[in-house]
User: Which sequence fits this backbone?
């Protein structure tokens, strides 16, 4: 049995991680974010502490009190949360003052260093869930057309380029024209804004992304948004994108006629 500290963000990922860890007999101590983390996580872990975004001192105190020596970052924090309910404590303020900027990668790497400075090793968030990583190839009954493969190729190149600037991970393309790029709103909202009939959505990891945290992820809600907007293809970077509730996601895609593919840049 391992004792694991779970730093929980939003979405289904923290719940899936907790259930997988518990099935293997591990003990989980969670720090969850008010307004971001699903309340039902409390039922899946052994201990839970609720904090506001930015309360680093309380996070560290919870882990020290429980004897945590290894931790995972699971689930994201919406950038909008920094505007809605950002309430850093003294330790959090000191940490933020040392950062050159607040890009995702800079912030998360620095936070990992902060934890490791306290004797808490950060381990990959895919721990126990490697089977949910996107495999290469066509994953549904419907395959992309040659024109859509060309859109996928362009989308991968554009997404990798914007990722270098720590902007986003998702682009929407049609007929070799970029219809939208992900910014503060997240993948599903990007699809809602830029998706249209016949378009291709591409989601990849950033070139500099540390896959110990902030792993790109999609789920059934992403498929539903593709269907709602008429998107024809969902292309995901193989080996680096999580398919949350994978079986449900692919079943829904097949029912809706959405092509899902794993691509290797």
Assistant:
């Amino acid at each position: 049995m391992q004792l694991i500290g779970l730093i929980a963000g939003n979405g289904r990922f923290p719940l899936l991680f907790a259930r997988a860890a518990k099935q293997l007999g591990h003990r989980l101590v969670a720090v969850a974010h008010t307004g971001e983390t699903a309340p039902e996580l409390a039922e899946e872990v052994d201990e839970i502490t609720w904090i506001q975004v930015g309360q680093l001192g309380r996070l560290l105190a919870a882990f020290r009190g429980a004897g945590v020596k290894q931790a995972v970052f699971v689930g994201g924090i919406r950038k909008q949360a920094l505007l809605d309910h950002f309430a850093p404590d003294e330790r959090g303020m000191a940490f933020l003052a040392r950062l050159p900027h607040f890009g995702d990668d800079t912030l998360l790497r620095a936070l990992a260093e902060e934890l490791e400075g306290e004797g808490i090793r950060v381990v990959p968030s895919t721990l126990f869930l490697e089977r949910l990583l996107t495999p290469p190839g066509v994953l549904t009954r419907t395959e992309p057309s040659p024109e859509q493969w060309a859109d996928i190729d362009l989308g991968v190149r554009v997404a990798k380029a914007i990722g270098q600037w720590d902007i986003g991970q998702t682009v929407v393309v049609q007929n070799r024209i970029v219809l939208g790029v992900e910014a503060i709103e997240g993948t599903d909202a990007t699809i809602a804004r830029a998706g249209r009939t016949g378009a291709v959505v591409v989601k990849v990891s950033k070139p500099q992304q540390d896959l110990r945290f902030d792993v790109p992820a999609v789920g059934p809600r992403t498929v539903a948004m593709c269907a709602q907007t008429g998107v024809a293809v969902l292309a995901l970077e193989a080996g680096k994108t999580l398919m949350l509730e994978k079986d449900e996601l692919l079943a829904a895609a097949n029912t809706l006629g959405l092509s899902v593919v794993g691509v290797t840049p």
Observations:
- The chain has a mean pLDDT of 92.
- Residues 3-122 form a domain with the Rossmann fold fold (CATH 3.40.50.20).
